[in-house]
Amino acid sequence: MCALCGVLGGKDHWTEPLQREGVYVRAADPAARRRERALRIKRANAMLGLFGLTLADWQAEAYLLSTRTGKTEVVADLAALWPAAEKLAGRPLDPLDPEALARAERLHG
Amino acid sequence: MVEPPVFTPVNLITGFLGAGKTTLLNRMLASPDLADTAVLINEFGEVGLDHELIERVDENTVLLQSGCLCCTIRGELADAIKALHSRRERREVPAYRRLLIESTGLADPLPILSTIAAEPALRHHYRLGVVVTAVDAVNGAAQLDAQPESRKQAAVADRLVITKTDLAEPGDVEALVARLRALNPAAPVRYAVAPDLDPAALLGHDLFDIDSKAREVTLWFDEALREAGHHHHHRHDPNRHGDDIRAFALSFEAPLDWTAFGLWLSMLLHRHGEAILRVKGLLNLAGEAAPVAVHAVQQLVHAPTHLPRWPSPDRRSRLVFIVKGLDEGLVRRSLAAFVRS
């Protein structure tokens, strides 16, 4: 098994690293963490929406990932998000796919 | 007694068989600045020789028995580091301040790096340091041609050290350096025989070295930009030898949205991590006065680091990608489309 997907990496995904000297931690206190979490859900939905998926908060502990038909999965963190999203969507979610790119450019351009 | 650092850096010396890793290692260990170094070597191919030469650091040396450091024995590497760590805790060995792993010439360096970053018992005490790749000036070009591991070792390097230049034709050395710079423009190239080679500097000045990380980040882009100019003029083809490893640099004027960048890079690495050997970036983030450096080896992303200030007046976000077969234009478009300030 490849540990690179972060499954063995535990909870501290690189976007939420352990606090130590010199490391960039965006959400250093509880209020900032809540703000960052809300922003992450918003930004993730902008990306996931291109593939028919939505993300919602789940008790400030995890995320609920859903398809338009209501299939839902709980994901713990960003490391688990993309594998779960591909599983629910039933296809690779490729940020380099020309069609997905064209949709993103139309939506956000 | 000197106390160990909170996070002990784990550095890797790699290079193909016969590239001169052990000679380089010994030179590094002879430097007083690297006196507090523990060494892990694995005995495959270069059995005995390594062990003989490394005797002097015997107290802190662990020989890995299984040969090639690859996925199947990653547990053994983790166990060896944990055992050494316990001995340091019990003060049975000197309080080493860095670890140095000499890998076999046949090894893919990536599983070694992932072990350090992902093993739960290690990542609270250890962090990735730098990857030093030795390349033999006489045989290096042929190895790059014939051995995918050799190309990967060069592509993931933080420093490239050319060995045996005294045995090679000057023209061959220049050609080899040009190829290495095409594979990995972000890694400075040094010469093992240079009288002014500072062995300690090969391991120092990494991203987590707070005093010098601005210099490290500047190095990435200096090398990458110089290389971009070189290619523009000489039309050197980095891909003439097969597997399409190439490097490219992107820059963005507008500050980036960190949250969107994190999601985008996670998504990109999830889908294309195997094809992305390295990413190094210096980011101008919306809402941040100072830059943030990011650094990834395939799917493995180091904790992002905050620089105290911009290293130059240039405030653009800059990213260097070393990829295998990915289209530069698509990566550029994707980042622009998904990551807004």
Furnish the topology, listing elements before pairings.
The complex is a heterodimer of chains A (109) and B (341).
Chain A: H1 30-48, E1 53-58, E2 62-67, E3 72-75, H2 78-89, H3 98-108
Antiparallel strand pairs in A: 1-2, 2-3
Chain B: E1 8-15, H1 21-30, E2 37-42, H2 49-54, E3 61-64, H3 74-89, E4 98-102, H4 109-118, H5 120-123, E5 126-136, H6 140-146, H7 148-155, E6 159-163, H8 170-183, E7 189-191, H9 199-203, H10 213-234, E8 245-252, H11 258-272, E9 276-283, E10 292-297, E11 300-301, E12 305-306, E13 317-324, H12 328-338
Parallel strand pairs in B: 1-4, 1-5, 2-3, 2-4, 5-6, 6-7
Antiparallel strand pairs in B: 8-13, 9-10, 9-13, 10-11, 10-12
Task: Kindly describe this structure.
The complex is a heterodimer of chains A (109) and B (341). By secondary structure, chain A is α+β, with helices and mostly antiparallel strands. Chain A has one domain. Chain A has three helices and three strands. Chain A has helices spanning 30-48, 78-89, 98-108; strands at residues 53-58, 62-67, 72-75. Chain A has a three-stranded antiparallel β-sheet with strand order 1-2-3. In chain A, a hairpin with a 3-residue loop joins β1 (53-58) and β2 (62-67). The longest helix of chain A is centred in the middle third of the chain and has 19 residues, at 30-48. Chain A is globular, with a radius of gyration of 15 Å. Residues 1-10 of chain A have low confidence and may be disordered. Chain B is an alpha/beta fold. Chain B has two domains: 8-203, P-loop containing nucleotide triphosphate hydrolases (Rossmann fold); 213-338, Hypothetical Protein Yjia, Chain: A,domain 2. In chain B, 38% of the residues lie in helices and 22% in strands. Chain B has twelve helices and 13 strands. Chain B has a seven-stranded parallel β-sheet with strand order 3-2-4-1-5-6-7, sandwiched between helices. In chain B, α3 crosses α4. Chain B is globular, with a radius of gyration of 20 Å. Residues 44-61, 65-73 and 231-241 of chain B have low confidence and may be disordered.
